[in-house]
Amino acid sequence: MTTPDIEGLDQLERAVLDENASLATALRRFLLIAGHAHQEELRAWALKQLDGYEAGEELPRFREVAAALEITVESSPPGRARTEDTRQIDPQQLPQAVRDRGVGEHAPIRYGVREIEALIAMGWNLELSPPGSAEYMAEVTNELGNGSVVLSLHWRVRLTALRGVLDHIRTRLTLFVAEVRAAMPPGQRNPNPDQIHSGAQHAFRIRVGNGDGTTINIVAPNAKAAHGSTASATVNEPVPTLPQPWWHRSSVIWSAIAAAATIAGVIATVAVAK
Fold first, then answer.
1. Are 39 and 216 in contact (CB under 8 A)?
2. Structure letter (DSSP) for residue 216
3. Per-residue CA distances from 34 to 25, 42, 101, 176, 192 (Å)
4. What is the pLDDT of residue 125?
């Protein structure tokens, strides 16, 4: 008994080539094709791009994007109005224990594609706090105690980086369509499961199973805000014990902050782009 050919490739092709259409539409069409072809691994990948990744889940490399590490400081000199200042810092100024938890110049993007598209449409940059930063900031607060506050330690993710995540997904889907087309002989309208399998292997550069349970790795908190305000979402990850206070080893940071620094707990924030 022959396996029937799988419909939907034409619709997927139109969806991935339409730059004005939501990428979620293309992913859903891809999800259906993967389901008809019994490609469970591809279905799982598509669902992750649609729904996003949970905290602690391994991310594909394209979702680890370049991002500057910043601190926001609120100072309150006696008799003067409070002022805020945001400045970039070098990750090497943080202790190894912090860097070991992923605090460098790359930030994890765990959002689903619709959330990423919404951020881009609203013109929002993303300010995302590293895991464990709240406790580190609290320790510095207790040490300094001079009436000033470092409001956050965060990654600043530019809109171009968010667009890059979507572009990578769209390119992979486009390559998948192209590879399946290449596997089809002239005159064939719809691909068969073997051609879907071949296209997936080439497009994703992975070994894809035939529904036998083989797993592959094809390699977020929600927030809402009114116009002009800041939306925030907490990062729920355990915090390691700090071997020694990192501010004693960060002369560059604290010489810049010298007149202003206590710490408040840090949250992941989505700030309206200026």
1. no
2. -
3. 14, 6, 35, 11, 11
4. 83
**Residue 104: per-residue pLDDT:** 83
Name the region of 233 (left: φ>0; alpha: ψ -120 to 50; beta: rest).
Answer: beta
CA-based nearest residue to 247, from 161, 122, 140: 140
Question: Please, what is the Cα angle at 88 between 103 and 67, to 5 degrees?
Answer: 50
Instruction: Tell me the C-alpha distance between 232 and 137, whole Å.
Output: 17
Which of the 8 DSSP states describes residue 3? Answer: P
Give pLDDT, residue 263: 31
Examine residue 217 and state whether it is found in any structural domain, yes or no: no
Which domain does 17 fall in, by range?
9-58+164-204
Task: Please report the pLDDT score of residue 53 as a whole number.
Answer: 96
235 three-state secondary structure: coil
Alpha helices in the chain (DSSP H): 9-17, 23-36, 40-51, 96-99, 113-122, 133-144, 159-183, 193-204, 251-257
* 17 and 178 Cβ atoms separated by less than 8 Å: no
What pLDDT score does 48 carry?
A: 96
Counting beta carbons within 10 angstroms of the beta carbon of residue 255, is it exposed (0 to 12), middle (13 to 18) or buried (19 or more)?
Answer: exposed
- Residues in the chain with pLDDT < 70? 1-3, 77-79, 95, 97-98, 102, 136, 138-148, 206-274
Q: Does 48 share its domain with 138?
A: no
Same domain, 76 and 136: yes
Q: What is the pLDDT of residue 139?
A: 60
